[in-house]
Specification:
mainly alpha, 21 helices, about 75% helix, globular
Length: about 375
């Protein structure tokens, strides 16, 4: 009997010694709490739940000691991020869901998408002033574009050691677009400007919609080959949508594919948030710089919108300039909401979609520029 109890005690000790409880540290506990808070924001408050829920759960999983994630499906998911598989696939789904018609109808809105990238370069130089390396600063700056997949893509190439902080900041600000942008928009515009009703856009032909993704892919990929996978997949998805002969492919890209890849990308992002890697002063700096980049990008878009309003004789509502960030279609909806608050019945959504989709392209171009400058 004594032998039995002795063997049982040894077994219990072995289980306890191998358990996560035995080696859990304060960093693990703090990050589990962070994951729980993110779950609350996603499920309880509805802040971008499709993204924050798997990110938050991945954060909790990443901080379970001895989790064995160096092998198996979790390792495969992490490799999908580090091998740059998931961001381009997300772009294919975004392209399939996006109507580039408003941008084609009013090419001037490309300027608003470009202006919103100003925050990217402000954050770049701010990060360098704070002591980050040039590669890290470039990856941090792209947060200002409010484009999670592009931020992850660039961080993977330039600064994988801070991927978790960059991804969380980018997706957090994407989800907080309805809270961050309106105060900036109201501060920089007058009520009279917000009341401006824009005219009907011209009809865009099927031929234009088919030619646009082809020409855009060739032109941008030749200029910035490093981002040809992002631009190419974005435009391929859009070509599926507009060709009218690939409906099944378009439906798969818009639904099954993008939903599946979103789960893997967001979960893999959460798996990078281990306490040892995440709980650093640098993480706080990254989150602050990302917020600055996002606010400056929003402000730059609105200010250029005011200039275009003046030059057009009051025909352009400056609110659509804030949609120049890449958060599609949330930023365009914010422009619509603010316009209707100023004047009920003011319909700005389709006009705002022009700079919004231009922002997607603009952020990818900014990422390509960063890779050309700092990619070695």
């Amino acid at each position: 009997m004594d032998g039995f109890f002795g063997a049982f005690a040894v077994a219990i000790h072995a289980v306890w010694s191998d358990s996560g409880y035995f080696v859990m540290n304060m960093n693990n506990i703090i990050m589990m709490i962070v994951g729980a808070v993110l779950l609350y924001l996603a499920i309880g408050k509805g802040f971008e739940p499709l993204l924050l829920t798997p990110i938050a759960f991945g954060c909790i999983l990443a901080n379970i000691p001895n989790n064995g994630f160096d092998e198996g499906v979790m390792n495969a998911i992490s490799m999908g991020i580090h091998m740059e598989i998931f961001p381009p696939l997300i772009f294919m789904g975004v392209g399939a869901m996006t109507d580039f018609g408003p941008l084609i109808a009013n090419p001037n809105t490309l300027l608003l998408g470009a202006a919103a990238q100003f925050g990217v370069f402000v954050a770049l130089y701010g990060a360098m002033a704070m002591g980050f390396t040039s590669s890290q600063a470039a990856a941090i700056g792209i947060i200002g574009g409010a484009d999670g997949p592009t931020a992850i893509y660039l961080a993977t190439k330039l600064a994988p050691e801070i991927l978790g902080a960059i991804a969380v900041a980018a997706y957090s600000y994407m989800s907080l677009v309805p809270l961050i942008q309106p105060p900036v928009m109201r501060l920089l515009t007058t009520k009279k400007e917000r009341e401006i009703q824009m005219g009907q856009m011209r009809h865009v032909s099927k031929f234009e919609k088919i030619v646009f993704p082809i020409v855009t892919t060739i032109a941008i990929s030749l200029l910035l080959p490093a981002i040809s996978s992002l631009i190419g997949m974005l435009m391929l998805g859009n070509l599926f949508r507009e060709s009218c002969v690939t409906d099944r492919l378009s439906d798969t890209a818009q639904n099954a594919l993008i939903n599946t890849v979103t789960i893997f990308l967001a979960l893999g992002t959460g798996l990078t948030m281990s306490g040892d890697a995440f709980l650093k002063l640098a993480t706080i700096k990254i989150i602050v710089l990302g917020l600055v980049a996002f606010i400056v990008g929003t402000a730059a878009g609105v200010l250029l919108g005011k200039v275009m309003c003046y030059l057009s004789g009051g025909k352009i509502n400056p609110l659509i300039g804030s949609a120049g960030v890449s958060a599609v279609p949330m930023a365009a909806r914010v422009s619509q909401i603010e316009g209707q608050k100023a004047k009920p019945g003011n319909y700005l959504l389709m006009h705002a979609m022009g700079p919004n989709v231009a922002g997607v392209i603009g952020t990818a171009v900014a990422a390509g520029t960063m890779l050309a400058m700092f990619g070695g």
